[in-house]
Amino acid sequence: MNTQTQQAKTYFNLHTTGIGYLNNIREVKPKKGNPFWACRIAALAGDSTTPEYRYFDVNVVGALAEKLVKNCQKAVSEGHKMLISFVISDLWADLYTVNKDSSYHKKGDTAVSLKGRLIRINMIKKDGVKVYPKVSTEAEQQTAPVQNPEEAIIEALPLPEEILVQEEDGNELPF
């Protein structure tokens, strides 16, 4: 087969973009297969004055995304609010049975977990202060116009006092 007769493979990419808080950062070490990093994202949805949360359990894919998530692990475990702008690919739903009563579900209920692959992090804020990409000098910031209107919205978001996240086993975790 020569290059003229080879067909290029095509893919349909499903990407979900948003902003949200990083939670439950961990390294997963399966019995079979290679270890990988995973986390939960409490994505913001709705009116910016009273946002709602949508939770995504994601595997971290790519060297840069993995490095950024690892760098956030200590801050998240210390209780800092790590807001990210993210891209998730290959979103799917996973059904599970709740094994403990909570304020969201009763024991035995069927619940859904949204899962995907975290492929890119565009921005990180630690307790409201941008840490990635690196912030330029104050003089440059004052003279540079806002390039992205989404970034202006992110700047205006209030930090939540506490986010309650429910694990698959029904336990609630404050973040």
Automatic annotation (TrEMBL):
It holds the Pfam family DUF3577. It comes from the Bacteria. This is STY4534 family ICE replication protein. It comes from Gallibacterium anatis. InterPro entries: DUF3577.
